[in-house]
Amino acid sequence: MVDVVSVLSECRALLTGHFLLSSGKHSSQYFQCARLLQYPDRAAEVIKIVADRLKNEVAAGRLAIDSVIGPAMGGIVVAYELGRQIGKPAFFTERNDEGTMTLRRGFEIAPGDRIVIAEDVVTTGKSTLETAEQIKALGGVVVASICVVDRRPADAAEPFPWPLYAALRQPAVLWDAADCALCKEGKTPAVKPGSRKVFA
Ligand SMILES: [Zn+2]
């Protein structure tokens, strides 16, 4: 099986350093999935891990899937590639002007449709749960979630009442800014991921 950590490192999607995250927490690692998804062949290798697991469940009669939905932006390409590999339609939800996750562009769910939600990263599961609300409101049924990297803390409870399949389970190590082990070492200041310095 493909070594996901090696692929992510080669694509420079998994960065090691001293990062200030949007949550205000500090971390020694940052995962930028878009840097994997820019290489379609590498993305296909990684997403195949979860596609194969879903196919096994379907073959065993434990799962049935009608379509794949990814929350924009992070879920769009992941959903597309998963849909391609399992032979199902794939589309996406996006936030409207009020910030609510909605299905637009004429995408439709038929009552009873069995849907897999596809994400790049699950940390809290918030956007997956928001997408699930929209699916349920339209009469669909969420049967599984998939993601490239499951970054939930090591002691986190199961985030969803349906199974989550991840190509890589790698819990985030986070510190409050006042209590950061890397700040205490004092070697380098924390940088915001996405800044020029990180990707230099
Ligand atoms: Zn720090």
Description of the molecule:
It is a single chain. The protein is an alpha/beta fold. It has one domain (4-199): Rossmann fold (3-Layer(aba) Sandwich), CATH 3.40.50. Helices cover 32% and strands 27% of the residues. It is built from seven helices and nine strands, in the order αββααβαβββαβββαα. It has helices at 4-10, 34-37, 40-59, 74-86, 126-137, 181-185, 196-199; strands spanning 14-20, 26-31, 67-71, 90-95, 101-103, 114-122, 141-150, 164-169, 174-175. It has a six-stranded mixed beta sheet with strand order 5-4-3-6-7-8. Strands 1-2-9 form a three-stranded antiparallel beta sheet. A hairpin with a 5-residue loop joins strand 4 (90-95) and strand 5 (101-103). The protein is globular. Zinc ion binds at residues 18, 26, 180, 182-183, 190.
**Secondary-structure-derived class:** alpha/beta
Number of DSSP E strands: 9
Going across the biggest sheet, name each strand in turn.
5-4-3-6-7-8
Number of domains: 1
Described by strand count, sense and barrel closure, the largest sheet is:
6 strands, mixed
Tell me the CATH topology. Answer: Rossmann fold
Helix and strand run: HEEHHEHEEEHEEEHH
Overall pLDDT, averaged? 92
Beta-strand residue percentage: 25-35%
> What CATH architecture label applies?
3-Layer(aba) Sandwich
Instruction: Kindly state the percentage of residues in helix.
Output: 25-40%
Radius of gyration (Å): 18 Å
Low-confidence stretches: none
- The rounded distance between the terminal residues' Cα atoms is 31 Å
Name the CATH class.
Alpha Beta
Question: How many DSSP helices?
Answer: 7
Bound molecules: zinc ion
Overall geometry comes to globular
